[in-house]
Amino acid sequence: MADETVTAGLLVIGDEILSGRTKDVNIAATAEFCTDLGIELREVRVVPDVTDEIVGALDALRHKFTYVFTTGGIGPTHDDITADAVAKAFGVALPINPEARAMLETRWKSAGTEVTAARLRMARIPEGADLIVNSVSAAPGFRIGNVHVMAGVPIIMKAMLEAIAPTLRTGRKVHSITVKAGVGEGAVGDALGEIQSRYPEVRLGSYPQMGGDRPTTELVLRATDEALLAEAAREVRAMVAAAHERAGLPAPDAEVY
Which of 8, 53, 137, 148 could be 67's S-S partner, Cβ–Cβ 3.0 to 4.6 Å? Predict the structure, then answer.
């Protein structure tokens, strides 16, 4: 249903993320993906390559949100334990999936790649799960219940998101308007709070910008109701204009501020 709220949580898995060795970009990609589909991404967790940590986070998220997306830990090495953890969380076995194996062996045969026990780890899929097609490297992700398990490599993860998009329920699209102010947050904070209290269904965010001649602020309004959003934005623009006047600045211009 297009009018219902559809929510999601994201579980990022990997020691390399927590150590800083790998800079995560999948959070932003997932957030943009969800926004485009009208899905509210409400929580992101990052956990190490520890089975119990993954199971605990997964159980918390999958009972809380419409969908859970995971990234990382489905490769061929010993520390790729996401499939093991997901199978444990759902209480199912983790056999080699014939369809997944066929996908991989077709790819390996065309590339002249040897079939090894390590590579076959990528064909282990929890019982009852459906495969998520990987158009980049063939090694599939999988979906079990409301959990979608995907690769950590950004280009593969994006391809998997595209593959699952048609299978997901969409919610009400969240629209946004950005109002730029040539003053710091302190000059608009009180008035912004008052506007927020009058428009509880509109999310108002304040984001300070540095690096110019003076501090400026970007005020972001988000809501599913476009008419209500436009009404709140008019009040914010009027508030910003008043703040500029008090500061002796020219009237706000979106091309300048």
Answer: 8
Is residue 176 within 8 Å of residue 222, measured between CB atoms?
yes
CATH class of this structure's domain 6-167: alpha beta
> Can you give the pTM of this predicted structure?
0.83
Closest CA to 183 of 173, 172, 174, 192: 192
Class of domain 175-246: alpha beta
pLDDT tens sequence for the chain (257 residues): 445 789 999 999 999 999 999 999 999 999 999 999 999 999 999 999 999 999 999 999 999 999 999 999 999 999 999 999 999 999 999 999 999 999 999 999 988 999 999 999 999 999 999 999 999 989 999 999 999 999 999 999 999 999 999 999 998 888 999 999 999 999 999 999 999 999 999 999 999 988 777 889 999 999 989 999 999 999 999 999 999 999 899 888 754 44
Quote the tokens at residue 225: 């109701």
